[in-house]
Amino acid sequence: MKRSLAMVLTLLGVWTCSVYAQAPRTMKAVPLFPGATVDAVILAQDKQLFDETTSEMSGLANRELKVLVTTAPPDEVVRWYVAKLKAEANNGEGFDPEILAQGGTSPVQYDPSYYRPEDFENQYERDLLIRDGEWVKKSLINRARSADGRILSDAVFIWEFINANDGRSEFSLSVEDISFDFEHKRYAPKSKITIQFLEFSEEGIDEDE
């Protein structure tokens, strides 16, 4: 059976979308790390900052925030989300915008960050030691390391898509190591997971351009 060129191109477009349409489009669809819970104090602080930083965004039609904590280390949480979201490490090349035009989501990309040598140095405020670098290093001694020996401190996942009304939506999901209490010099493994959703109207996109 012969098919027209237009039909073939349409089928190819549908196939392309299916490859990249795996990313969640609603906050409810974003998977939650097993055992993660809400810390009311952390949520309240982050919600205040989120509201302040997004309140004057041009064309913002909707916004949502979810903040969770877990006793799992960040490397474990990041590995889980890489698998669940089928995420790719950000190589700086971006993605084909035609994916969005065809109704798909962008690939989920993530950027990991690692502890730096200066994080293991002593820090002082006048003559007062406020960060014991050697203690930080010892606290992390059993943490997983990358192939080149680095220890993960945080990571950010991002993806976006075009809405039915031609506006744009974007998700960011960050994993942050919050294990250290420097004031009381306490270490207890804990990661914070922050999920942000921003939906912009078509008018807002035009104004930004």
List the helices and strands and how they pair.
Blueprint: H1 5-20, H2 40-54, E1 60-70, H3 74-85, E2 88-89, H4 98-101, E3 109-114, E4 123-125, E5 128-131, H5 133-139, E6 152-162, E7 168-177, E8 180-181, E9 186-187, E10 191-200, H6 202-208
Parallel strand pairs: 2-3
Antiparallel strand pairs: 1-10, 3-6, 4-5, 6-7, 7-10, 8-9
How far apart, in Å, are the first and last alpha carbons? 46 Å
Strand order of the biggest β-sheet? 1-10-7-6-3-2
Task: Give the mean pLDDT.
Answer: 87
Question: What fraction, in percent, of the residue positions are helical?
Answer: 25-40%
Overall 3D form: globular
| Binned strand content | 25-35%
Task: Characterize the largest beta sheet: strand count, sense, and whether it forms a barrel.
Answer: 6 strands, mixed
Which residues sit in consecutive blocks of at least 5 with pLDDT less than 50? 1-21
Oligomer: single chain
* Overall structural domain count: 1
- Order of helix and strand elements from N to C terminus: HHEHEHEEEHEEEEEH
State the total count of DSSP E strands. 10
Q: Give the C-alpha Rg.
A: 21 Å
Number of DSSP helices?
6
Question: Given the helix and strand composition, which structural class is it?
Answer: alpha+beta
